[in-house]
Design brief:
By secondary structure, the chain is an all-beta fold. The chain is 0% helix and 48% strand. The strands form 2 sheets. Strands 2, 4, 5, 6, 9, 10 and 11 form a 7-stranded mixed sheet that branches. A 4-stranded antiparallel sheet has the order 1-3-8-7, with no helix packed on it.
Length: 126
């Protein structure tokens, strides 16, 4: 079992940057695939980026490719989401999610994850 805590959200102007962190409990974090999702008011929760347990495979939603970078430090049990060139449409609550799995990329469907953090608010002002 793993518990996830997000941090790093806040208010930023359009074009700015933020780095989100997802800290996990447990000693076997490297067997978990991790995804970042976001949910804007009145919208469905959507996949943003994912990373395999080893960190070698990453995947992104088209809307964030080239602007966001996901990475992980398994020694620190932490996954990061570096967000650059932020836009007003990136405003949302951002969640990290984890699911055990040793092969392949992180899933993109929210129902494929069993563990979720509480979320962190990101607000981009235009």
């Amino acid at each position: 079992q793993v518990q996830l805590v997000e941090s790093g959200g806040g208010l930023v102007q359009a074009g700015g940057s933020l780095r989100l962190s997802c800290a996990a409990s447990g000693r076997t974090f490297n067997i978990y695939k991790v995804g970042w999702f976001r949910q804007a008011p009145g919208k469905e929760r959507e996949f943003v980026a994912g990373i395999s347990g080893s960190g070698r495979t990453t995947n992104y939603a088209d809307s964030v490719k080239g602007r966001f970078t996901i990475s992980r430090d398994n020694a620190k049990n932490t996954v990061y989401l570096q967000m650059n060139d932020l836009k007003s449409e990136d405003t949302a609550v951002y969640y990290c999610a984890a699911e055990p799995g040793t092969w392949g990329p992180a899933p993109t469907g929210r129902l494929e994850y069993g563990y979720w953090g509480q979320g962190t608010q990101v607000t981009v002002s235009s």
